[in-house]
Design goal:
341 residues; alpha/beta; Spore Coat Polysaccharide Biosynthesis Protein SpsA, Chain A; 2 domains; nine-stranded mixed sheet; 15 helices; globular; disordered N terminus; disordered C terminus
């Protein structure tokens, strides 16, 4: 089987970054190995990002059937993904986290859609799975792939897929790198930048992978503030890219302003300078800004209309801190009626 795989040009390369995932990496690799057939070659590139547990031992059982790259020190999953991309040789590439698994037969379906449609990117469905202590898996929810016909406006509407729910033409992303500064929203950033390069994005009517949730993921949890900062940083890159190619229309500026507003409450609470800067930029994009699709509370939309975004959200954050205990105690009834967030 190994000789047969070596004789075939790989149809797709699956890049798996891993760090201290000895208990899970075998499942991830096996889910890729079972995708192979006599006519469908799958290259598996595992980048061990300086693991200090038994990950290397767990990978040794696959020696000869996968490509293992071992890094001397832990530099983060995005650095490992970039190393994997350099080592990939398939016509298409997919990124798989080392604690997740591909669904049976998904790769051949996605590649077939890419070839038939001529698409640079194929997006597929995915499912989240809860793992218990006995490693039993329970599907929580399934997600359908988004329609991406009007790519720029779809991106501005928040359409995207997580890390492993897409395959990419290697020629499209060969010169693209994962942003190694990002920790939380890195897959969103990658998808946006790849999608802006694509001539066509197609959909595959299949569940591509299981995104497994488990207790060992605690170290991957990020703060709300990091999430908000990365959200704004990624939107800034998107704005600059659209401006550079002449696609930043007035309508798109207004949509960007709405999207920036999404994380403004967090900045108002925890990063005043970034909050003030973002308020100014929102009004630069849309001088008549009033939050709509990113604000679900009518009274906050009203406050922003008459007080302005800066005053309304500053007042909201002050009240929130007050309710949480930095001021005199407020009765639950008053809190729930006027201060919910």
């Amino acid at each position: 089987m190994v000789e047969m795989m070596n004789a075939l040009e790989p149809s797709i390369s699956v890049i798996i970054p891993t760090f201290n995932r000895a208990a899970f990496i075998g499942d991830a690799v096996n889910s890729c190995l079972t995708q192979r057939s006599p006519t469908f070659a799958v290259e598996i590139v595992v980048v061990d990002d300086g693991s200090t547990d038994a990950t290397a031992l767990a990978l040794s059982q696959f020696a000869g059937s996968i490509h293992i790259v071992s890094l001397s020190e832990n530099r983060g999953r995005n650095r490992a993904r970039n190393v994997g991309l350099v080592n990939a040789t398939g016509c298409y590439v997919k990124f798989l986290d080392s604690d997740d698994v591909l669904e049976a037969g998904s790769l051949s379906i996605e590649v077939a859609v890419a070839k038939e449609s001529g698409a640079d990117i194929v997006v597929a469905g995915w499912q989240t799975v809860e793992m218990d202590d006995a490693r039993n898996a329970n599907v929580v929810v399934q997600f359908d792939p988004p329609m991406m016909e009007a790519v720029i406006d779809d991106l501005l509407a928040g359409k995207a897929v997580p890390t492993s729910a897409a395959i990419y033409s290697r020629s499209l992303v060969a010169q693209l790198e994962w942003d190694e500064r990002l920790r939380k929203l890195d897959d969103w950033d990658w998808f946006i930048r790849a999608a802006l390069r694509a001539n066509k994005i197609a959909r595959a009517a299949t569940v591509s992978y299981s995104w497994r949730q488990h207790s060992a993921q605690g170290i991957r949890a990020e703060t709300m503030l990091r999430n908000a900062r990365e959200h704004h940083a990624i939107l800034q890159k998107l704005e600059e890219a659209l401006a550079e190619c002449g696609e930043l229309t007035s309508t798109r500026k207004k949509r960007l302003a709405q999207y920036l507003y999404k994380e403004m409450r967090v900045l108002a609470l925890y990063d005043k300078p970034a909050f003030a800067k973002a308020v100014r930029h929102i009004y630069q994009l849309d001088p008549d800004f009033v939050p709509r699709d990113e604000e679900r509370q009518w009274w906050m939309s009203l406050a922003c209309r008459y007080l302005g975004v800066g005053v309304a959200l500053s007042l909201h954050s002050a009240i929130k801190k007050y309710v949480k205990g930095t001021g005199p105690r407020i009765t639950p009834k008053a809190s729930s009626r006027t201060l919910s967030s």
